[in-house]
Design a protein that fits this description.
The protein is an alpha+beta fold. The protein contains seven helices and eleven strands. It binds manganese (II) ion. The site of manganese (II) ion (MN) has 6 residues, from helix 5.
Length: 237
């Protein structure tokens, strides 16, 4: 897969608590949370543990879930050791590809999207309070975008002793475009705008356009994205 990465502190935050990774068929976006740079530490630990655990392994659901559990346990233990880090955690959106399949693991409100045949679809469900309210019909998706508690996530890596990750599997298709991103992008840029940016333009131009749009709308959060293009064939990168 061809990969383009962008991460930006945004316009109002002083530190970037998102973390991003790309290598050997594995792509990660993590959005850390917690005071005093604890979020940055949590997101960095998630990337370190997952990339280490999955290196040189063949993609499989059990291996992926056990690596997620390991990352969760390591962050949770680290948070318990220092009072300043108490409650730290991170979202995780992971994409892991072999020759024929893509696995996605999801915790929190970062997202994976797939553009296939000109149609964009969100492949993950947000683990957030507003997403639950939308699912049970209490509020509309439009109301969710401006809801005062729109940043409240219901699952995170490292905040509890155990974590329940969603896993999705897809068959790869040549020319598929995948987007992994933190909520600093999706809170500023609509799905229609994401679809427009991903359609047609070269990958790097699409990534630049999405980042510029998020910044132009205010950039009130850290903005991170991994954009992938499936070139087909057996190679991972
Ligand atoms: Mn965020």
């Amino acid at each position: 897969m061809k990969a383009i990465l962008r991460t930006d502190v945004g316009k109002t935050r002083t530190i970037n608590e998102d973390a991003v990774f790309a290598g050997e068929g594995l792509y990660l976006v993590c959005d850390g949370m917690g005071g005093h740079q604890a979020g940055e530490i949590a997101a960095g630990m998630a990337v370190e543990v997952l990339s280490g655990a999955l290196k040189k392994k063949r993609p499989g659901i059990r291996v992926l879930l056990s690596a997620v559990a390991e990352a969760n346990a390591r962050i949770f233990a680290h948070a318990g050791e220092r009072t300043g880090l108490h409650g730290m955690g991170t979202t995780l959106t992971a994409l892991w590809a072999d020759e024929r399949h893509v696995l996605i693991a999801q915790v929190g409100d970062s997202r994976a999207y797939l553009l296939r045949g000109g149609v964009l679809r969100q492949c993950t469900h947000d683990h957030s309070m507003v997403a639950e309210l939308v699912r049970n019909g209490s509020i509309t998706p439009e109301e969710a975008r401006t809801h005062p508690q729109r940043n409240l996530i219901t699952r995170a890596l490292g905040t509890q002793s155990k974590v329940d990750a969603d896993v999705f599997e897809f068959a790869r298709q040549q020319d598929d475009r995948w987007l992994l991103c933190s909520d600093g992008l999706t809170s500023m840029v609509s799905d229609a705008e994401i679809a427009a940016a991903l359609s047609g333009a070269p990958l790097a131009d699409a990534a630049d356009r999405l980042l510029e749009q998020a910044l132009a709308r205010g950039g009130t959060d850290n903005i991170t994205l991994v954009l992938l293009e499936d070139e087909g064939g057996a190679s991972h990168d």
